[in-house]
Amino acid sequence: xxxxxIFLFFLALMLAWGGYLYSGDLxxxxxxxxxxxxxxxxxRDYDYSNALVSRAVDxxxxxxxxxxxxxxxxxxxxxIHESSKLARDIQRSGQDKAAIKELxxxxxxxxxxLVEGRRVRLEFDAExxxxxxxxxxxxxxxxxxxxxxxxxxxxxxxxxxIPPNVKYAELFSTLYRQAxxxxxxxxxx
Length: 189
Fold this sequence. Notes:
189 residues, alpha+beta, five-stranded mixed barrel, two-stranded antiparallel sheet
């Protein structure tokens, strides 16, 4: 009996530690030493119908109050962080690093102003997580604003349609075309 209790204790400890690692809080690039929070979601349910956005990471990624990262489905914004995606954006667009980062900052500022510190509702599609363990979601403000669509409509995102998460692909395509035609957001140049 004692071995079983010890085994269950260590199993619970490992699951809790895995949940903590999963939250991304051990990545030193995400926080200064003062900001690191020892929060474990193990054993808790989270209400994705009334989640608080603690911050925008960039134009298409958010962090919730429980430290989960949310990748907005169907959209893609220019990169602001040094990464392999920034290198791909440079190669794909032919623009230099500074230009891409500037466009990325514009997208980030728009998204930040739209959602940071506000309560949202998440809607999931066929897949709930991406390969980086971020939640994949369509996000809505409490006033009904469809965040993913608003970012595209105002010209601060391109399209990124990855099956099977395609529920609003046609809507996003229409909004993207209209934003480009009307030279909104990043398309003003």
